[in-house]
């Protein structure tokens, strides 16, 4: 693991690292905010998964989360959204496939299957790596994300009960097997295997019996992708109701899909995770 950038912010450090990923068979970049408390003791971690077209940079620059992470003594761990580089397959004409669009699944279809294993990377490899090298409390972690990353956060938690203390999401893709972005990526990465699609779909996971403590979701009512049917929080809400899965779905009046929306509510999400991480 190589530290390539470090800047002091709110008494802590916003760092960027590169390392070789065994899961993705390539160099990966991630960012991490270490709060001031980490200078004296190990701290809990909140993983943030970003959306389509993002790198590790979008969240750290646009969300304003570091102030709240410093306040609560929580580290932020911000992976990239896919492997990258000349040897990694891409679909440059599509913003919603390939590099920048890993969809947090383990691909099984060529040419994606060698490198696009973001599920294993985020759920297994990255936590193992950062807990080994950085001042974190082993196993004390929560997860959140936006859009494609909200989908990633929901499935990571639903598929691994007990692994995360809490999960929240901003405008998540709740039912990808029934939405254009999800269908495109699942077809490319997973092929035609319906069981595999369901295994990476938050709504199907709840329908199949996955159960967690309360899930927090914020969704803007003026979100262009909500209107397009890409997100489908109503399908997830119905599944949660049916399965008695506690869900706080907050429809936020007038907010769109952007980081302005995330920046507005990220402080509330971090405070909510902090309670679970205590
Ligand atoms: N119109 C955009 C589409 C990409 C986009 O909106 N990406 C969102 C996430 S959408 C779901 O995962 C995002 O977070 N963008 C980065 C940002 O900093 O806002 C396009 O064509 O790029």
UniProtKB/TrEMBL annotation:
Report the active site residues: 147, 223, 257
Entry keyword annotation includes rRNA-binding: no
Q: Which UniProt keywords apply?
A: Hydrolase, Serine esterase
Entry EC no(s) = 3.1.2.12
The record lists the catalysed reaction(s) as:
S-formylglutathione + H2O = formate + glutathione + H(+)
Record function comment:
Serine hydrolase involved in the detoxification of formaldehyde.
Query: Known SUPFAM superfamilies for this protein?
Result: alpha/beta-Hydrolases
What is one cellular component GO term in this UniProt entry? cytosol
Give GO terms for biological process. Answer: formaldehyde catabolic process
Q: What is this protein called?
A: S-formylglutathione hydrolase
Name the family the entry cites. Answer: Belongs to the esterase D family.
């Amino acid at each position: 693991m190589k530290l390539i950038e470090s800047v002091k912010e709110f008494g802590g450090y916003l760092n960027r690292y590169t390392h070789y990923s065994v899961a993705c068979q390539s160099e990966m970049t991630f960012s991490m905010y270490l709060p001031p408390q980490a200078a004296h003791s190990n701290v809990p971690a909140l993983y943030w998964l970003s959306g389509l077209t993002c790198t590790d940079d979008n969240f750290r620059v646009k969300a304003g989360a570091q102030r709240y992470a410093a306040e609560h003594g929580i580290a932020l761990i911000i992976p990239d959204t896919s492997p990258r580089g000349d040897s990694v397959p891409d679909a440059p004409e599509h913003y919603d496939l390939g590099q920048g669009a890993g969809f947090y699944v383990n691909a099984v279809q060529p040419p994606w299957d060698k490198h696009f294993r973001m599920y294993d990377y985020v759920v297994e490899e990255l936590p193992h790596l950062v807990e080994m090298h950085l001042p974190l409390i082993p196993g004390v972690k929560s997860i959140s994300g936006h859009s494609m990353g909200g989908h990633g956060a929901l499935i990571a938690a639903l598929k691994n009960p007990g692994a995360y203390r809490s999960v929240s999401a901003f405008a998540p893709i709740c039912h990808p097997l029934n939405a254009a972005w999800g269908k495109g990526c699942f077809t490319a990465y997973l092929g035609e295997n319906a069981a595999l699609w369901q295994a990476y779909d938050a709504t199907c996971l709840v329908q199949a019996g996955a159960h967690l403590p309360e899930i927090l979701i914020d969704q803007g009512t003026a979100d262009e992708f909500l209107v397009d049917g890409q997100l489908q929080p109503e399908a997830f809400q119905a599944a949660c109701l049916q399965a008695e899965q506690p869900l706080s779905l907050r429809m936020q009046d007038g907010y769109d899909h952007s980081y302005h929306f995330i920046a507005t509510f990220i402080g509330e999400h971090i405070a909510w995770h902090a309670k679970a991480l205590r």
